[in-house]
Hints:
There is one protein chain. The protein is an alpha/beta fold. The protein has one domain (2-160): Rossmann fold (3-Layer(aba) Sandwich). The protein is built from six helices and seven strands, in the order βαβααβαβββαβα. The chain has helices at residues 12-16, 38-41, 56-61, 79-86, 125-141, 155-160, and strands at residues 2-6, 22-25, 65-71, 92-99, 102-107, 112-120, 144-152. A five-stranded parallel sheet has the order 2-1-3-6-7. Strand 6, helix 5 (125-141) and strand 7 (144-152) form a beta-alpha-beta unit. The radius of gyration is 15 Å and the shape is globular.
Amino acid sequence: MKVILHDLEPSRSEQLSSKCDAIIEADGKYAPCQGCFGCWVKHPAECFMKDKLQKACRTLGRAEELVIITKNLYGSYSTNIKTVMDRTIGASTPLSTYRAWEMHHILRYGKHSLFKVLVYGNITEQEKATFTYMAKRNAINDGYNESEVLFFASASEAESAV
């Protein structure tokens, strides 16, 4: 399953829907993670908050390929994208194991193939290096075999690269 997580205008979701199996809009119309860990232990992979991200853990956890389209924010994801990612901790379990000689949480839905990040906006070389390193670490932590980060000047260029 291919999933696109984006912070573009909501009208862009319709255009992107033909290129994937599921879309998650990071439009900021949801609450941030409360840190209760209920999605880990009380009701696995489901947030207690009844908003549009309630089942985002399951959608992102089952993604064989995850494509994130985000505006650069000082070498990191936009705040809306980061908030969605925080709400998906339930895609793993509270138990730990070794992956790539490092300690990581056990994945609830198993390994995945591609973690792809399409970054748009002004970005310095140092921010590119930071973003690339962070995306690689996120991919390892979330069980992806491969990570890729591409940089674009505008949102429309990033969208066309999906």
